[in-house]
Amino acid sequence: MRNTNRLRPIFLTFEQWLPRWSLQHRLCCSKPVSVHSNEESRADKFKTQIATGPRFHDFVKGASINKQQPVITDDLIDTDKHAYLPEDSEIGNSRTVCFETYGCQMNVNDTEIAWSILQKKGYQRTSDVAEADVVLLVTCSIREKAEQTIWNRLRQLTAMKKRRLKTRVPMKIGVLGCMAERLKSELLEREKLLDVLAGPDAYRDLPRLLSVAHGGQQASNVLLSLEETYADVMPVHHSPQARQVSIMRGCDNMCSYCIVPFTRGRERSRPVSSILEEVHILSEQGVKEVTLLGQNVNSYRDTSEEQFCSSEPGQLSRGFRTVYRARPGGLRFADLLDRVSLIDPDMRIRFTSPHPKDFPDEVLQLIKERANICKQIHLPAQSGSSTVLQAMRRGYSREAYLELVDNIKTIIPGVSLSSDFISGFCGETEEDHLQTLSLIREVRYNVGFLFAYSMRKKTHAFHRLQDDVPAEVKQRRLEELIGMFREEATKVNSALIGSAQLVLVEGESKRSAQDLCGRNDGNVKVIFPRQEVAGQPTDTGTDTSPVNPGDYVLVKIESANSQSLRGHALSHTSLSDSATRLPDHRHDGQLASVARHGI
Fold this sequence. Notes:
Blueprint (H helix, E strand, L loop, with lengths): L1 H6 L6 H13 L4 H22 L21 H4 L18 E6 L3 H16 L3 E2 L8 E6 L4 H20 L8 E6 H5 L1 H7 L5 E3 L7 H9 L4 E3 L20 E5 L1 E2 L10 H5 L3 E2 L2 H13 L4 E5 L7 E2 L28 E2 H9 L6 E5 L8 H9 L6 E3 L7 H6 L6 H14 L4 E8 L6 H14 L3 E6 L7 H5 L6 H24 L5 E9 L6 E5 L5 E5 L3 E2 L9 E2 L6 E9 L3 E10 L1 H7 L11 E4 L3
Parallel strand pairs: 1-2, 1-3, 3-4, 4-5, 5-6, 7-10, 10-13, 14-15, 15-16, 16-24, 19-23
Antiparallel strand pairs: 8-9, 11-12, 17-18, 17-22, 18-19, 20-21, 22-23
Helix pairs in contact: 16-18
């Protein structure tokens, strides 16, 4: 009771507390105070232990307790070292790693970045999962089917891991990318199918994560960054003739169906100087085609240097708006595209994936004027119904989109257009679906990426809308979109029969070792027999040479379907040479093929 009473003054006013304190002070020899003295003694002893115990510097490797100015050494400024790990723990020691990449081109680029980081740490790469010490899945979360593919693969790998002989190095399984960011708890805790988890902004941490995993523990880093662009990491590419260069990461558009802002984070652009340096290196290596990559590639805005900053906001396509306030200043996409295209006139330039809102006339004029910028634009529509577009928070109407299409075709005659479409979005009616079909017929795209809607957690649609279109209706509408695309594609591709197409050769056709394949300016696959051809279009045919990957050749088209063009090679050429010699055989952008995904 005595101790309880002594706690009460804490809840009293200062005036109430003061007399009791004075009384206790006068009774310094009384029995209650002896208890208090013992408590003070124990408190003093505890304080002494804290004062003489380990300090923060005892937990930091190389820290100095000298209060004078410390001497800065290399090991103190090496941010890659971790004091709680052995010196060589992050070295790969020739461990083999196998990457499996799923989803978009950004994931392909992420794979190249992750491999570049691990390669420098001494890891070796293999394509044989059975021989790999580490298997890393670079994942996609855009649709449920994509995630289910990863879940099934993880269970297969876990079974393989358990069957591995104990005499071998235990297999470590990791998930990288969007799925790691979205489903971190389920992956690590509930299913317990993996050892390493790394989000899209954590690839620099992979050596440490793998080191922890090799020690027998799970390791994860899924922190999103407002700055990470991997600008100083040179990706390790596999394709010798066509490369991808990431110029920005993240997305701020917040379309109601899209998970990307939640798995990839906010938009941030890579400094233009590092992009130009990478493209210069690729040109010196003989690369013939570069694709500039970004989740919203044409919203590029570099503010890394003072001269790029101004009060001028970026221009949007007419009739388009954003959900965020326009940001002033920065070096814009048109400026970057201009500088990249000037590096090598014999290097094709493409870019993906853009948003229709970021196509001011200056971008379109530049595409028209530069021979090495492909006259092909990806223009994701998602729907042909203004009602559905509003529910999707796309920032434009059907009418504004068609006005943009007309403007593009006016400025760039013969342009090829491709697009994305979602069937069965929340609240989509049969009339909305018919409007989407009519938009596809009116625009006449060259490629279509078509998907049935798959609701994702965290998105605006998940919280505000209802996924009320039955699965069988989504599937039927998707099949109708695909059927119509194929029909139109066959018609417009057939119009190219008899024309000569400039083709960048990619390699051997998958269906026949006797055929080569490549892509024309409109990004349509062209297949032709492997044979020697003339060195120049004007040669008599006596001076011939083989066709190799990375060569530009003229191919006369002899047949076509919805997926590809077929013909035979006429001659070797170059991009700059063909710009002056080759007639314009594009038919108002009416090349067409269809890609089917997400079914």
